[in-house]
Specification:
The protein is α/β, with parallel strands linked by helices. Helix content is 40%, strand content 20%. Helix 4 runs parallel beside helix 5, helix 6 packs across helix 8 and helix 8 crosses helix 10. The radius of gyration is 19 Å and the shape is globular. The structure holds nicotinamide-adenine-dinucleotide.
């Protein structure tokens, strides 16, 4: 039985990835600062460790003194646009330390395969209507935020260790990911979860606040598609960074209206000042498509699976507060 470690297994994508690896027959250890918030882990073993410490990186990747077969590195100090703009130092400090220690431990322990979760935040801003950007166009680099710069550095570090030590490195650049059991309040939530929460909290014909003018264009990938992509990439011989994202691009207002449609509510959008990030996105999926991956969930399909979960969280929180 292959042994895998998922770093960041207490988080959103990490906890879904653990389930996928269990379905694929792996023995799985999860590592995180915290247990998953919204349900029990599917991992065989779960270690609470601070991965900013080198000693914990080594501890994470060995079982009875022997290195595991595969490492999936998803641990990061991370959140939506509000967090990315207000916590630049924490993101650069904490995530860089995690990535520095984990790739060093994985490579020197001789781990065969190392997955790194990067982001399309490594790319520069784009204008609506620009042709697709491919992975090599991240250089010359001009990410819009420090989160993107840290990811780019961590990608390069992992590739340097691969050249020196031979650990096979696989890098995915995720587009926005959403689904049930993701952070939905507290300041670290991303746009799909925040809008589901706002729509759930408002009545029919209510008003919801949207940061910016609502025209910023993004694509949103349902979490089941994302973990399928991670697994396919890890099993493949596809080297270098690989974009993973749903090819459906929408404005933030369109995202809000999709949530309203699923909720069966009429909503009125009030645009307010707030951190928006880049204006537009349009990325090539040719590399991940070459492995046969396709996103199975349209935005509406994914929101139909996500909104009821968030609406339920909102309702039970309101019940507790009463
Ligand atoms: P998440 O915040 O839900 O999960 C990250 C996990 O890392 C958290 O559980 C957190 O506790 C853990 N962590 C943070 N610091 C740690 C430390 N010092 N030691 C141990 N664990 C620590 O985020 P997510 O949405 O699941 O994202 C997973 C990965 O994918 C991250 O690397 C993120 O940057 C990347 N990514 C996510 C998205 C997205 O839309 N969710 C998009 C692009 C890239």
């Amino acid at each position: 039985m292959k042994k895998a470690v998922v770093c960041g297994a207490g988080g959103f994508i990490g906890s879904h990835l653990v389930k996928k690896l269990k379905q694929e027959g792996y023995w799985v250890r999860g590592v995180d600062l915290k247990h998953p918030e919204f349900g029990p882990t599917a991992a065989d073993e779960f270690l609470i460790l601070d991965l900013r410490e080198a000693v914990n990186a080594y501890k994470s990747l060995t079982v009875n003194g022997r290195a595991v077969d595969e490492t999936y590195q998803l641990a990061a100090d991370m959140g939506g646009m509000g967090f990315i703009h207000s916590a630049e130092c924490e993101i650069m400090h904490n995530s860089a330390l995690i990535n520095i220690h984990l790739i060093d431990a994985a490579a020197t322990l001789g781990i065969a395969r190392y997955f790194f979760s990067s982001s399309v935040c490594v790319y520069r801003d784009m204008q609506p209507g620009e042709p697709e950007m491919s992975e090599d166009q991240a250089i010359p680099a001009n990410p819009d935020n420090e989160y993107g710069w840290e990811k780019l550095y961590a990608e390069r570090m992992a590739l340097a260790y691969e050249r020196r030590f031979g650990t096979q490195v696989r890098i995915a650049r995720f587009q926005n990911c959403y689904g049930p059991q993701g952070t939905w309040r507290g300041g670290r939530e991303k746009a799909p979860a925040a809008l589901c929460r706002k729509v759930a909290e408002t009545g029919d014909d209510g008003v919801i606040d949207v940061w910016g003018d609502g025209s910023a264009v993004r694509s949103y990938t349902y979490v089941d598609d994302m973990v399928d992509g991670i697994f396919m990439l890890m099993q493949s011989e596809l080297h270098g960074a690989v974009n993973i994202g749903c090819p459906q691009y929408v404005s933030v207002d369109e995202l809000a209206q999709t949530v309203a449609k699923v909720a069966n509510k009429k909503i009125n959008i009030r645009h307010i000042e707030g951190p928006v990030g880049v204006q537009s996105r349009n990325f090539s999926n040719e590399r991940i498509y070459s492995l046969g991956w396709r996103s199975r969930f349209s935005l509406e399909d994914g929101i139909r699976r996500t909104y009821p979960w968030i609406a339920n969280q909102v309702e039970s929180t309101q019940r507790h507060e009463r």
